[in-house]
Amino acid sequence: QEERPKPLHSTDACSCVCYECSDVMPEEAKKEGEAKDVEMKDASKEEKKDKKEEKPKDPRTILLESLSANLKSIATGVQQGDSRMMGRVIRTFANLRRTIEPEVLKALLEEFVDASRTNKAQLISYVPPEDVVMADPPKEGDDKEKKEVEIKFPQLAKPYAPELEAYAVLMLLVKLSGRNEKEKALEVASSLVLWLKPLNRRTLDVFASRAYFYLSLAYERCGRLSEIRPELLAAYRTACLRHDQMGQATLLNLLLRNYLAYNLYDQALKMVSKTSFPESRPNMQYARYLFYIGQIKAVQLEYSDSHSKLMQAIRKAPQTSTVALGFKLAAGKLAIVVELLMGGIPERTTFFQKETREQLRPYYAITMAVRSGDLHAFKECTQTYEALFKKDKTLTLINRLRYNVIKTGLRSISLAYSRISLQDICTKLGLESPQDAAGVVAKAVVDGVIDATIDYDQQFVKSNQKIDLYSSCEPQKALHKRIAFCLQMHNDTVKAMAYPDENENKETEDPEEKREREKRELADIDDDDDDMMI
Fold this sequence. Notes:
mainly alpha
């Protein structure tokens, strides 16, 4: 028999040690693994306890942190001469005007409004009281915590920059406008504009444009909008001389709104033809400008251009359903009427959105009357909602739809009948006489609505054979129109891009803080001053 080869180092002691090691090591590994599991469980429990112990911040603490961040941004922007920081501060107004407390606003005015101003005490007295909210009685511990929160602002270099004072007064003005206190808002806005006029500082341009906006809004609410027109014209000239693009955009929109409020369409058209809207404009101001241009073009019978401008205005408005609802509703109503005047029919989804369903019901009735070509239903609907159409300033355009209703009826008649008498047309369309029907048919033939011939001797209309649309140039025109729109959108997007300053110190802000700030700005971008979309 052959002997098996012995393993290397096959001593008894070594083999014994090896077997012992093989038996002992798994048990030690198990014990160490169990100890690690216990440690991990304990650590996870401690983390949960720490999370439970963290309490939400007091609303006043959050408010003071936000105000402190804004004040520091203003001071940094003034020091660096960067007006973009002022724009970031302005974007926070939409949130602050809902959360700011009267005591905090009084302390802000007391601290940053110069004592040399004669109306400082009056401004502080104009701070509106806090809204009464029915809530559960607070606990004893909560009262102690709230009392501990003191109103403190960051220590900034004195004397304070005018931008800080403008920020404090503008915060009061925003609060008064939100409360609809017309007379107080008018007085505060007038004093603020008068104080800002002699100050020629680029970092004050954003605050000055907002001050003029709320001044115009206060005049409008007081029913004295025509009185501010010379003031706005002078301010617009000054903004052009100073190359203040934010002021130019805001003041141009205010002037157009002023003209259109009194139906001065010719003056508004001259204003538009002799001015140019600044390229580096805010999105909300450009949306308002497009809306006013669409309104002017609709009255001037340029329906295609009007519809294009109105649809761009709706797209550039905030897409959140509850923000700038009044602006989107006004632009949507006008766009519906203009599309009907162009011979089109709006989509059904336009009328059945949750937020605007009730307000668009009269316009849906008008659309159905135009779509069916029923002149009787159109007259009845116009008479029923006449007051609403006057309020929306669309009654003049809706009265123009009468011929469109007749055209729609003629188009359906032309498709259904190859030959029909003028008397039957008169009966179907609800016209007064066959002579009126002949005139309407003749105009429809000239406009290209129907392809037919009129036999005046036999008093009938004969429809010609329908030509294939795809053999004409219409598809090419439609494609060219869409391509032009896409190219224009690309150009606007490239112009709207903003790049950081090369000299900006990137180490002043941590990456985490920068990401959090950008998230807050993106969250507030749709709420960017709902008032500015009025």
